[in-house]
Amino acid sequence: MKKRPYRDLNTYFKSLFGCRVHKVTVDAGLSCPNRDGTLSTGGCIYCNARGSGTGARQQGLSITQQIERAKDRIARRFKTNQLLAYFQSFTNTYAPVERLRAMYDEALAVENVVGMAVGTRPDCVDDTKLDLLASYTRDHLVWVEYGLQSAHDRTLARINRGHDVACFENAVKATRGRNIRICAHVILGLPGESREDMLTTADFIAGMGLDGVKLHLLYVVRGTAMETLYNSGAYRCLEQREYAERVCDFIERLPDTMIIQRLTGDPHPRELVAPDWSLQKKETVDLIHTLFREKNTWQGKRYRGGSPS
Hints:
This protein is an alpha/beta fold. It is built from 10 helices and 9 strands. The strands form 2 sheets. A 7-stranded parallel sheet has the order 1-2-3-4-5-6-8. It has a two-stranded antiparallel ribbon with strand order 7-9.
């Protein structure tokens, strides 16, 4: 297979384990301080009641059952039985430490689970929780995925994120040195952001000493504040080529050591309002690869250097 112009997740896994490893989405039934009234009750303006989750916990499925149910499907489709448990729904450090320990222990006890990725907010970690995550790194691969979304405080306020950029910086600093891999989530196409704003975010995370990044398209989901904004005409979604160009622009500013875990998101078809093209994931990814070739660019081409602050 032709080498990609960026460091992708599958190649990274194969370098560690000698084989493909597939992520299994886990719903632990947790909430979020930006939805339960601790910070606000509305949440981020793009997030609906499912919190990017599967709803499996509400269906009564345990963590073990969720992983076991996915095994056969993954083995058939991806030809692997090596799994990484991905705690995705809502905020997966937003609970007492003993509950978190039980969650993580259960996932890692399932046969062929080689590690876990924990999606969370930068305002929902502390030394005790990070020590817990670090305790698993002796025997497992552990990623923590912090939602940043933008390096601009004005944007974070506009999307009702509930924390600022400094909070993300502090969480990353607290996580370093614990053998935990750190990934940032970034959304392209946020309200009010220009191409230059997005590139500033790229330069910001490029200097943070992160291990990985996930890029997401801002798509409009039913039942969110974004839907109201979109229907009023106050927000325009990125076009497919426009998004693909932003992804290339973004990645070429990152160090070539950073793992590009995701190029775009996966909206639920029944929940999607716009843009329709966001359902064509393969087409979008193919377009991104085409643009890399057309532009004769690659990850790190425009990386400005610098060291973690």
